[in-house]
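In practice, a research group might receive sequence data for several interacting partners and want a quick structural hypothesis before committing to experiments. The following worked case mirrors that situation: the sequences arrive first, and a predicted assembly follows.
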Amino acid sequence: MRWFLYDILRSRRVNIICRLSLAVVFALAAVGKILDPLEFSDAVAAFRILPITWTNIFAITLPWIELFAAVILLMKRMSKSSGFILALLNIIFVAAISSAMARGLDIECGCFTLSKAHDKVGWGLLARDCVLLALCLEVVFVADEKITRKSNIADCLSV
Amino acid sequence: MRNPSQIACSVCIVLAATVVGLTANALRPDGLPLIRKPLRETRTIVAKEYLLSETQTRHGVMEQAPRQPSAISALSEQEPLQSDSVTKVADQTIHEKRPAEEAPPVSLAGSTSRKLAMLSVKTPVESVPARRPPKKAEALFTTLDDAKALFDSGEALFLDARPIEDFDYEHIKGAVYLYFEELDKLYEQVLAGIDKARIIITYCSDPECTEAVKLGDELVARGHTKVVILLEGLPGWKDAGYPTEGKGVAE
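A structural hypothesis for the assembly, expressed as tokens:
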């Protein structure tokens, strides 16, 4: 049974679903933040983790990293590289949300600034990010190497 | 992911995205400055005496103030308002980029003799350099001591810019709830009968909370001429031992 599930997780179909889902979610999140970096900077400052002087640099660069990783995730040969970036980002988000919850901060996530719905920091948000992290880990560690074959540097740089 | 070339790919993606992001930010007209200043350094602190004076016009544009013998006065009949200097001081919005050729702005933080400043940064169009559009009006900061003095005299209306749960739990005694996100809904209820020249003090939960700043700016935009922001917020008020009320306050 265990190996059967493992084979399913390693299958091409599951890999494509994971990559498509991650690409859509992170691309949408990135576009909102790129269009309104001011709001995202305020949201980052509200977490009280980074020194206030760094929040603008973070707000300027992070959405572009998300967007690049989301788009490149759709490329078969570089999906593990971009999946790794998204996994790291998700780990940072999960840590930040957990820290905010532990300190009792009643703030918004700032994850999807395009959305009118307010994304308050809480268990629901934490669960959502854990699911995204699981999808990233599937792409990076579980997916069959044959799906992303020829992962040497020359093929990484070719589209 | 054990292949070093995959890690190298990841690093390349991050670097490329960072370069593109910084370039895009530099090219856009409303791009953020790379270094964000603490909120306290972005605007002027206005003295209580100025708030209590009668020199404000209906639209918050300061007229030339008469000569004051007080040490804190920075204005005199011999020195009419320099719109450039005032513009420089008031130009420090939270996320404004300063062109390199401008002189450094006057720093008021820590100054022993506080300068009186405009509540509004609106200046006559002809005095503004042609390359820079007129700034919109914005609220300025007040100190904890001045806020307490205005609280004691009953001359100020305190507005709490935090969510209702926080307000119900504890707020400055006598403060009124006006959460910034619900301003359109609550404005008529809370401020319909209030004189536009009434002193209003907005506050929220800490010195980097922007809700009180946004609320203050919005009230100035709606015609209120004496709106200031208490940067220290409720925690600073409580730490100073000033009165609060709410469900979470022990009787």
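Before designing any experiment, note the following. The first helix of chain B runs from residue 4 to 27. Residues 55-129 of chain B have pLDDT under 50 and may be disordered.
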